[in-house]
């Protein structure tokens, strides 16, 4: 059976709108906010308003919704029908805007990773309530990084409320988003099965922004440490089911990653493409021909290296689209989501570092954005699960092993 790898025409609006924003808004201010860490990019307010206006009018590129959760019921589709919905649209939008600047993309109002978390597990009533908020996502704590099952923040039931206590670090958009999706345990004795996610307003009693981190890259994006001290939220702010199902285990809340990992892969794909396009132009100006019909050993070493990196880029791109497509079509995509994140994260760090090297002094200077992309790229191989975590998840899915059997 023939496989068509072209995007459906209906998604061209998404790609075109996002690329215009990246080229006309993000790129011109990219260096400005890289040098002004923690300064809010006010130019993004206009973009957010434009996205919302287009979305309300039904004319927006689909990615403008930012994954704010338009769930589709597969039962309503004709037999055999396929969907290119919110996940695919968000990943494509992410790719294009990250081509402009990934730190600025993470700073767009109402486009936070917490929004994808809400879309992944929220009920229809919760989507009505939280579908239009700007949500950051708070998982990591001082005592752990990629081991999400080690959450020590607690959420104790008290009547019609939950009381949250704990500290979260490296919360992307934590000081700017108006809500925070907080991972917490409702019963420490029940282990990982008791970990739930809660939507908490940022300006709320018991919520304190402790500090903003100084970082290697994505400096346009704020990264916060947040303390929750006797923070009381309504019980209905718990996303999904409040029941602790030890048989289902950690699966419910982990569905979040099946949506967000392809998005992070999309970020990496966008930055990789930006670096490759810049390198191609530099090679052409230097008189280096890239010939796809010649074997690698018969052309310039830089051209051969470019072709190698470009093939990795194509693989990362296709992995990302597949994971998003599966999510839209309600196919289990945990393995594919991790594959997309692992491949794209590894590729972006390799390509941006090698591009700086091949560009020589221009690559290391601030005359171009190459060195910035190399700094930005490292986080894309870390957050939403490191390379090692992704490989572990992939191995479990391929071998049919549980987390207890394969650590």
Structure description:
The chain is α+β, with helices and mostly antiparallel strands and 407 residues long. It has three domains: 9-130, Butyryl-Coa Dehydrogenase, subunit A, domain 1, CATH 1.10.540; 135-237, Butyryl-CoA Dehydrogenase, subunit A, domain 2; 251-399, Butyryl-CoA Dehydrogenase, subunit A, domain 3 (Up-down Bundle), CATH 1.20.140. It has twelve helices and seven strands. The protein has helices at residues 12-34, 43-57, 86-100, 102-105, 113-121, 124-130, 251-285, 301-328, 334-359, 361-364, 370-380, 387-399, and strands at residues 135-138, 154-158, 161-172, 179-185, 195-201, 207-212, 223-234. The protein has a four-stranded antiparallel sheet with strand order 2-3-7-6, with no helix packed on it.
Concise summary:
This protein is 47% helix and 13% strand. The model is unreliable at 60-75 (pLDDT under 50).
């Amino acid at each position: 059976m023939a496989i068509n790898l072209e995007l459906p025409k209906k998604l061209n609006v998404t790609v075109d709108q996002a690329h215009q924003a990246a080229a006309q808004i993000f790129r011109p201010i990219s260096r400005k906010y890289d040098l002004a860490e923690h300064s809010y990019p006010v130019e993004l307010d206009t973009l957010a308003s434009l996205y919302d206006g287009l979305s309300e009018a039904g004319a927006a590129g689909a990615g403008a919704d930012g994954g704010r959760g338009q769930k589709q019921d597969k039962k309503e589709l004709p037999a055999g029908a396929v969907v290119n919905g919110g996940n695919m649209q968000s990943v494509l939008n992410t790719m294009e805007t990250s081509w402009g600047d990934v730190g600025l993309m993470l700073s767009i109002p109402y486009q936070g990773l917490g929004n994808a978390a809400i879309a992944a597990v929220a009920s229809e009533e919760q989507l009505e309530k939280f579908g239009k908020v700007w949500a950051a996502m708070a998982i990591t704590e001082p005592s752990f990084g990629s081991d999400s099952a080690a959450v020590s923040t607690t959420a104790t039931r008290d009547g019609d409320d939950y009381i949250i206590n704990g500290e979260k670090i490296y919360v992307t958009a934590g000081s700017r988003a108006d809500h925070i999706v907080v991972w917490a345990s409702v019963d420490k004795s029940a282990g990982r099965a008791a970990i739930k996610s809660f939507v908490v307003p940022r300006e709320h009693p018991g919520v304190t922004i402790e500090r903003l981190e100084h970082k290697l890259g994505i400096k346009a994006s704020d990264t916060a440490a947040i303390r929750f001290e006797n923070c009381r939220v309504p019980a209905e702010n718990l996303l999904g089911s409040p029941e602790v199902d030890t048989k289902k285990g950690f699966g419910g809340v982990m569905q979040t990653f099946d949506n967000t990992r392809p998005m992070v892969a999309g970020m990496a794909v966008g930055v990789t493409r930006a670096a490759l396009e810049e390198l191609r132009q530099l090679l052409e100006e230097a008189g280096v021909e890239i010939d796809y019909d010649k074997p690698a050993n018969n052309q310039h070493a830089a051209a051969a290296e470019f072709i190698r990196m470009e093939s990795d880029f194509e693989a990362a791109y296709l992995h990302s689209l597949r994971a998003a497509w599966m999510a839209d079509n309600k196919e289990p995509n945990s393995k594919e989501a991790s594959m997309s994140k692992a491949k794209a994260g590894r590729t972006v760090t390799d390509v941006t570092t090698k591009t700086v090297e091949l560009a020589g002094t221009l690559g290391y200077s601030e005359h171009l954005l190459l060195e910035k992309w190399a700094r930005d790229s490292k986080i894309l191989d870390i957050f939403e699960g490191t390379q090692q975590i992704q490989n572990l998840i992939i191995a479990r899915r391929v071998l049919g092993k549980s987390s207890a059997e394969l650590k």
